[in-house]
Each structure stands twice: as C-alpha cells, then as structure tokens.
Amino acid sequence: MALKSALILSVLSGVKADDDLGFKMHYHAPAAAGTYPVVLFVSGFSGDAPASAYSNFVNQLTDHGFVVVAMDHLKFPNYPKQGQAFHDVMDWAAAGHLQEALVDAGISAVADLEKVAVMGQSAGNHVVGQGLTDGCSLAKAMVMIDPVDGFDPFGIMHSEDLITPGEKLKFTIPSLLLDNELDPKGKNALFPACAPAKLGAPRWFDATAGPVWNVNASSFGHVDCLDDLYIAAGKLVCPSDKKTDKKAYRAYLADTVALFLDGVLNGNTDKFDLLEDAAKFDIAVTVRNDLKGQSHADIKPGCSNTAVLV
C-alpha cells in the first residue's frame, strides 16, 4: 500500500506579507501523479519547533499516500490567535489555494479536499484544537501526537487553556491519540515533564467528544518522533531512552496514523480492529479506546462543532 518512491518537497508557501497565514507551509507529496488525502500538521511548541525536525516521520507518512502540509513559525505562543490562524489555513485550503500552492511548488499530486485530517505534535495540538473550536472547516479526522494543553508546563496560567477538566471539547471528530510512557516524566528535578499528566494525553482522552483510539508506546519519549539530530538536542529537556530504536518508533507512528486515516477517510473500518489489538504492533504498546457507544461501522469522517453558531 505504501508508495515507496516519494517526491518530498519542502518549500515556503510564498504567501505575501499582507496575506500572511501565520505559518510557513512545507509541502510533502507522493511522486506519482494522483489524488491523495491531506494531512495538515502543526509542529510542537505551538508551531515553533521546525517542521524539518519531523522529516523522517513525515516522509514515511507521505509514502503511505498522503499530501502532508507541515506548518511552523517563530512566534511567541498565543493559542487563541494561532488557533484562528490554523482555522484560516483550513479555509484557505478549502478555497482552492492549497492546490494552487502545490502546482506552484511543482508537485503533480492533487489534494483531495474531501479527505482532510488535522494533526499536531505536543502543543501543536493546542493550536489545532483551538482551530477546530473556532470552526471545523474541512477537517474530517484528527491525529494527536503527544498532546499538551495549557500555556505553561506547570499548569499555573489557565487563561489560554483549551480544555476544562470534566468537560468535553467543543468539537466532535474521529480521533487518534498517540502518546508514550516518558511523556509525563521530567528529565530531572530542574525540568518539568514535557507533557505533564494533568496537561497531556489523559486530559485530552477524557475531553475528546468523538470516538477516540489511544495507543501508548511503552518505551519511548516526547522527542523520539523527531529526526535523530533533533532528538540529541531535545533530550536535554525531555527524557529519551538511548537504548530504544527511534527509527522503529517513527515507522510505527507513520504506520499507525495511516491505518487510522485509512479507516476513517477511506471507510476501511476493519482497520479499527488493528488499533485495538496491542499484539498487532511492531513495538510494545498498550491500547484503549472510547468510541462513545458507536460501532466501527458507525464511524464516519466528519467534524461537528458546538462552539460556533451555524
């Protein structure tokens, strides 16, 4: 199923300063001409982590047959503003400008705007979640990798929190949550955890309003999704076990995201069985889900929103 030869292009969008979308856009697409589902991806630290740091993972996801638009910027975190910017990106894509940008970048792949997933890593999920709170636009599925809520890792400032504990998010969308056991652990006494439990995956799992699958990679850490060079820097503040196979972890991430999106976007709901069986994964994981009473056959691509008036 994977497209082994992929044309990986990473270019700036060329958006004019007076039409700034708030992110630099990096386009990745399969080499073969065709129409492909789209993944809109916001990097960690609210987009301040360089998109290039995820190139190995993103390239593998592209090999599975996806157009991936990776987004980053250098801006002080402002989740309401950056969430609105992400929502604007979705509307920009829906208006046909994403396809124009692909053509301008020399990419022959066609973006299937009926099959669009949104994805974040770390606090990039806060940006994506705020964007969906502002409006679903063309989002049909959501992937959360190591999600973090809140403005600071200590959970002291709550003015920009997306999630209110005990309440559901204001949007309902089929979701995949990928976390790991080192996420909620601090590097040492001087550093808070990069994904504290009270702000990390458990908070997001409980708040997700739609059906959600959670796969936890038992031996890995918050920065292990990055390319090796960036892991070397990231592990100065986030724990990472030097004995674990990071290449295998990144392959697992891409394979699992592709499996989930094939189930949701393409209607191959038999793939959901695989998300619920830890023995089917190539690395050690634990799995859980909350399908909100739905059967696999009931789960369809789409997003609804209770925060905005239609």
Based on the structure given, which CATH architecture is correct?
A: 3-Layer(aba) Sandwich
Give me the CATH superfamily: Alpha/Beta hydrolase fold, catalytic domain
Strand order of the largest sheet: 1-2-4-3-5-6-8-9-10
- CATH structural fold name: Rossmann fold
Determine the N-to-C terminus distance. 39 Å
**Low-confidence sequence ranges:** 1-19
Give the proportion of residues in helices: 25-40%
Q: What is the count of helical runs?
A: 8
CATH class: Alpha Beta
Order of helices and strands: EEEHEHHEHEEEHEHHHEE
Mean pLDDT: 89
Number of strands: 11
Q: What radius of gyration results from the CA coordinates?
A: 18 Å
Overall 3D geometry?
A: globular
The total number of structural domains is 1
Describe what this molecule looks like in 3D.
The structure is a single chain. The chain has eight helices and eleven strands. α5 links the parallel β8 (175-180) and β9 (212-217). The strands form two sheets. A nine-stranded mixed β-sheet has the order 1-2-4-3-5-6-8-9-10, sandwiched between helices. It has 310 residues and is an alpha/beta fold. α1 crosses α7 (246-265) and α2 (79-94) crosses α4 (124-134). The protein has helices at 55-63, 79-94, 97-104, 124-134, 201-207, 228-234, 246-265, 271-275, and strands at 6-7, 24-30, 35-42, 67-72, 110-121, 141-145, 171-172, 175-180, 212-217, 285-290, 304-305. Residues 1-19 have low confidence and may be disordered. The protein has one domain (17-305): Alpha/Beta hydrolase fold, catalytic domain (Rossmann fold, 3-Layer(aba) Sandwich), CATH 3.40.50.1820.
